[in-house]
Sequence to fold (626 residues):
Amino acid sequence: MTAIRAVKDGILAVFRRMDKHAVFWLQLPFVVLFVVFIIVPILVAFGLSFTDFNSIQSPNWVGAENYINILTNDDVFSGYALPNTIKYAVIVGVFGYILAFILAWMLAQVPRIPRTIMAAILYLPSMTGPTMIQNVWQVIFAGDKVGYLNAFLLKWDIIREPVVWLSDSKYIMTIMIIVSLWSCMGIGFLSMLAGILNVNRELYEAAHIDGVSNRLQEVIYVTIPAIKPHMMFGAIMAIVNAFQNANIGVQLSGANPTPGYAGQLLITHADEHAFVRYEMGYSAAISVIVLIIIWVISQLSKKVFRDKEAA
Amino acid sequence: MKTKRKNRIRLTGINPTRFDRSQIKFYVILLPIMVFMSFPMIFIVFNAFKPLDELLNYPPNLITLRPTLQNFQNLIATSDNKAIPVSRYLFNSMITTLVVVLLSVLITSMAAYCMSKKKYRLKNILFGINEAALMFVSAAVAIPRYIIMSKLGFTDTFWAQVIPLLAIPVGLYLVKQFIDELPDEMIEAARIDGAGDFQILRRIVIPNISPALATVAILAFQSAWGSVEASNYYINNEALKTFAFYMTTLSNQAGASNLANANAMAGAGGLLGNSAVAGLGLQAAATLIMFIPNLVLFIILQSRVMNTMSHSGMK
Fold:
């Protein structure tokens, strides 16, 4: 009994001592993990991007050679990965974001119970994660006549032979975009929905007295200005989503490089160099370019939202 | 006239309390979108209970005509003659997910409490860095992460599944925003009563921020339950890999047979091999097992998540 009490007192004493430096102890685990798995990887990627590291021999410093090669000498980068990424990010990021806002706004116009059900239907696909996305959509787009899409199109005589959707360079990008839009209503969407629902009702009433007479004017003059912080959060999430799911082409087609490089995005391109060709340095340089692109886009979108506020 | 108009706004505007004819147009637009969004999920449920011949029916039926548990039995049986049973993958996934959720909720609330309520010099810098990290894309640094994991000696251990997923910048951001809403007086009162920071966190902060913690839990769940990164890159020992990874092996098989089948079809009439057929059933069952926890979790936690999201705005 006394032993247990001694241990308990000991633990309490440790906590009391830690309390003096509580700020340090409380933040230590998060900060350490944050540094080790977010900051350090970025720094390592940056460092490796100036080397010829191939995962076996120790890396040699090659200066900006990787970057020069990527920008001037890499046909896949300039011909496929970069244009594909731009197309994919614009449609999934920008269009997906606008769609998320419109859907959130429409959901806010209906009563709570149907709204909750529809919000769940929209949000669930984003929870499911890449593995499930791969599994489900592979079956729908299966290349034989048993595939759902093929069977449907065959039945209606739209096609005469089953199409091998996922291995065909003509279709892979479109399919990637459809699947990504399906899974892009994540917490950014929920944030905008919550924002719209919380707009002070009096703002609308005041606007109506000022002559706002239809829902479109309501959106432009009341809703958007009131939920700008939520739209900012949604924008950041949309940008991340447009780049984070970049391996979707590889997952759907089951091959890296994707058929005819048609589904190759910057991150897939980096992965191909890293895990197929073992050119880690080169791959790291591509990753750094991706991180810079994301950072620039985020800064631009912050600027857009803050400038509007000033206006 | 004026009051009449005001009533109309009440009835038809944002967040209505009941159905109104003016809402019909929204339903007309939303319903087809809902059909598209929910189709794959409905399809998962029906497919999992289809017998093999129905999975191969042409034309395929969405609805299961003769529901059976055959696919689930096969899923258990296939693994009986393998070194690693499916239950082992499932067990690994459950344990890793549980540990990731608990630890990330704990460390996130600890750090968020400091960044919200304590005063110290680095506070704004730390929170600024975290806010910048909201746009961090882990997929872009897969290789450096791999190098770090092996240098730290986590390769081929249980912790390789857990450690990289614990720091969630979005989670910290949301919890901090939520704690900001707690009145300072509440914490001051506890401090006057002699409570230290650990006690304040445990007795006052954590019980009052359960919506935000539920949101972190969902985010952590999402990253851990579907995680294949660790199983692909950091772990060679099959006994430590996750269910999500096992699923990718199933779908890669299906993908390969799909390709082979397409090639065969170019030559002669396409017939699926027996193993591919069985694979389809396994895949359907595994997908449902993977999906159910997402659904249950969101249904339980959705009102708390929405509550948290009202504080998610970025100033």
